[in-house]
Amino acid sequence: MKRTINMLFAFLLCSPVWALSDIKPVYLRCNYKVNPFIDTKIPMLSWELVSNQNNQVQTAYQVMVASSLALLNNETPDIWNSGKTEGNQTNQVAYNGKPLFSAGIYYWKVRSWDKDRNAGPWSIVASWETGLFNKLEWKADWIGFELDSLNTNKDYHLPPAPYLRREVRLKTGIKRARLYVTSLGLNEFYVNGTRIGSDYFLPGWTDYNKRLYYQVYDVSKNIKAGDNVLGAVLSPGWYAGYVGYALLVGSPQVRGFYGNTPLLRASVWVEYHNGEREIIATDGSWKASDGALRETDILNGETYDARREVKGWSQTGFNMLDWKPVTIYADKADRELQVYPGNPVAIFDTLTAKKITKARNGRYIVDFGQNFSGIIRLNVKGKTGDSIIIRYGEMLHPDGRLMTENLRRARAIDTYIIKGDENMETWSPQFTYHGFQFVEIAGLKYQPTIETIKGLVLTSSTPGAGTMETDNAMINQLYKNIVWTQRSNYFDIPTDCPQRDERLGWTGDAQVYTRSAIYNNDISAFFLKWLQDLNDAQFPNGAYPIYAPMPLTVNGLSAIRSTDSYSPGWMEAGIICAYEMYQAYGDTGIIKKYWPGMKRFMSFLDQKAGGDHLFKERAFEEISPKGGFGDWLSVGKKTSPDLLASIYYFYCSKLMEEMAAAIGADKDKQQLQQNAQRIRAAFVKHYTDGAGNFKVNPEIYGDVTGYVEYSKEKGFHGHTQTAYANAIYMGLLPADFIKIAGNSLAGLLNENDWKLATGFLGVKPLLPALSLTGHTGLAYHLLLSKEYPSWGFEVINGATTIWERWNSYIKEKGFENNAGMNSFNHYSFGSVNEWMFEYMAGIKPAAAGFKKIIIRPEIADSSINYVKASYHSINGKIESSWKKVNGKLIMDIIIPVNTKAKVLIPASSVGSVRVKGKNDIMLKSSDVSNRVEADLGSGKYQFEVTGFATPE
Ligand code: RAM
0.85 cut: is pTM over it? Predict the structure, then answer.
């Protein structure tokens, strides 16, 4: 009897129908992805919780992992049963079951216990699948087909793409099949004529001498018993093609930075119902040929001669008499081979032309109405051998010509040679991409329509995470521009721009923008990948580079430009980006993984600073440009790069101190804390006048020869917007100096006609620093300004993305800087997004992983009367909105399950706040003046405020 009752009880606990609580785990992820292929031995699991109850939390959880669905459904997991585990952890839950094996499928589910300690129902089942833990398991050779000696006699050396194939006969009774595939250079893989997956630019850019990623695909449905054909097309890509501005700056090497011949390595694992396994891998039996893809390069574009299409090359029944044997290449034994940890590049959307106009010489200009990264899809008809030539541009000249000057040496031309079919011919480039809004079509014998050409938007497929809307059209457009710029530049790595001969993972741009990016998309997996690239590129002296990946010469210098090395404001990305991942996703694994590297960087700084505990004027003269890039592209007085380097030095110590605490590195923490205090004291002594005003000694810089060119006449200063904004934002100043610095910042804006003067490093902290020192009204003024230089100025001049310069284009004047360095798709100035989310909407983390949230919106004057923002955090969706209605302020807030929030309501007294529909909310007046505060658990809330104040 007792047993029956126990069983019944167990049944009640496990069954979804009889669950006592409605708390339910959803959106199960492993290593930040849904049902991924992985190759980490300790996968990290996460889930979100939903419940209709307010103030809901998880008090315990149970994870089950099984090798089959049946075992999991029966609750008899053979791999891991965590048992009921006390705690509220819902992410970064480390797998702790049996050792994982290669090519295994692992099914898992989880349930949670709620605040009353009642169990909720089980989640639906999720899974992960392991790749190949050991390189030898691939049983595959590196194969290639040397074509590099072709096409050498042109402006650009663009060899044709090799096509590789192999036939294989398989037995009946196939249960499942997996493809493991990688390449040095880019690949597209085909099985029986079908392209596998929908990803682009595989296997991504890494330091190919150290690390290479591979993809895994389920090809069970693509292969069959009997004859099959495996095929692949390769392109030089980042491995063997043109990279960056090497050509522009006259580097001895301009392409082929890692090798010259693109290579393929693939392994298809076929499992039969009878338990047998067969592996078909790349080896000497593969055959190769060139084909229709005559030129293929990321920066320079593609030429596709459809007349040379080899029909059926990746299908059975094909005559491959004139195909040649492939060459086998040696592996690099110490190169890591791992599963791609990021979100691969994929098509995000298909754009239809907004306008098509006839141009000179029978050409046509197509306007997609939006600047973006991607390719086009052509759908044309014509005479055999006719060439359709496509050029790309972000802007038009006033006379309607395509503006291509800012592409510099990126040829960015695609050519399609018509085969002359009776039907329409459809073509898209495969291994190149462009940054463009406009396309020029030449060679078409008829007026194109919107069916002739489509825009395919390509981006790393980071899941969307944020939304932002207001009743101010200019702000809405600005937000859209920020999102499009991120979309265009989060392209396997965080690039600076997508159009010209650059597209590098500039670390300064990345670090100022990471936090802004977090609010738009879930960039956890994307940054897992790039942080590895960044750490792989750390210099032996401990400095992180100015861009990553950074191809090197045998002497360890940048192969793109030998003087490229490290720079204050850029190199700190190694600390700042890791910290932002920890803040956003609570990821201490990242900290642990890169801690030794971070400490080496800190030692580098410590050594350089020596007994001064900061960087005095001219401290960075060994790099090029001297002092580094400073407040790059700032528009006013130039800030001393060394003063900035000192503030960053402090910031890195402080962030590392916090990270040391998070991983329990107590000794490091103490040291870092001490270090930070020393830097602060040294800074106050050296770079302030003792009363809180910043100063530098301009004499010491002399005529600034060798420093960033545009600073020559003006020299360097300490009393600048950028200096104060950074010092305030980074928490450098002693308490009594903060207000003074805030006033100096406001004073400098006043002196400058209430305009910003900041560059890449100054823009991000500018508005937050104003708000932190009681000048939110001024922050709003800058945000809303439409005068040069401002975000609004770009918007009113037609921007659909964020520009590299505030005046990249002016409607009545045209291109103020139609120089090589004038990108119309550059996210650095988009770092204002951080302020829009954290201050305008008021959503901010108060503990790592948004476990605790601060909701503290800053209410604007009459220029904005409504703001609504949401951020899908790792714990679920947070929402904050405010609206002015009949002199009252209505605030709507959503707090996810298992988190706590402190809301700071803009109200002068508790009496002026009404909580809608809830009487268990305790309101109290806050330490922060003119704010009433409430501590909230999960749920939806509405507050109504009478007599709210807008900032000065
Ligand atoms: C430019 C890049 C990048 C910047 C560097 C210093 O060429 O576009 O945005 O970080 O220079």
Answer: yes
